[in-house]
Amino acid sequence: MIKRLLAIAFFVVLPAVAQAQTSALGMSIGIAEPTADGLDFNLEDTTLEIFYKVPLDKGTNLRLKYGTLESDLEIDGVKDEGDLQYLNLLVAYEFDETFGNSAFFAGIGMYRQEIGELDESDYGFSVGVNATFPVTRRVAFLTELSYHYAHFEADTGFVMATGGIEFNF
How far apart are CA 95 and CA 58, in angstroms? Predict the structure, then answer.
């Protein structure tokens, strides 16, 4: 997984450096809710995400996002508390707003879940909306609401709400 992450990061970072475009690094924390048993909004699962963003065109950007969360998961009929990790490649369409920017995004990803010594990896996708609130030219706060689906043996879906900080350079 680390080799894949480094290869994807290399191909995302290289165009930004070559074209001397502005890019951003960010981190967010939040809550997640599994959708397998319906939404009961117990809000007990926490998530942590880091991302790298590079513009593709005016109003469009590409984000490479890594996230992790702890939740109730199922692998081979075993249900228990476990870790879910994901690496997403997302395309976002931004809209200028009075307060900053809002965006709609969608993309594909690799998902991995672990319960003790059991683990499972498969593909998935993510869609959502976010809003960016600039504080200075280089720093902004952001909020995001997203849905993640992973195509595991027991299909896994999560709704996530996060908030964090973005550093533009």
Answer: 10
Q: What's the CA gap between 91 and 109, in Å, rounded? A: 12
**pTM beyond cutoff 0.85:** no
Identity of residue 90: L
Amino acid identity for residue 23 in this structure: S
CB 21 within 8 A of CB 156: no
pLDDT along the chain (169 residues), means of 10: 62 55 90 78 85 93 94 82 93 93 96 89 96 94 95 86 95
Distance of CA 91 to the CA centre of its chain: 11
Structure tokens at 48: 């942590």
CB atoms closer than 10 angstroms to residue 30: 21
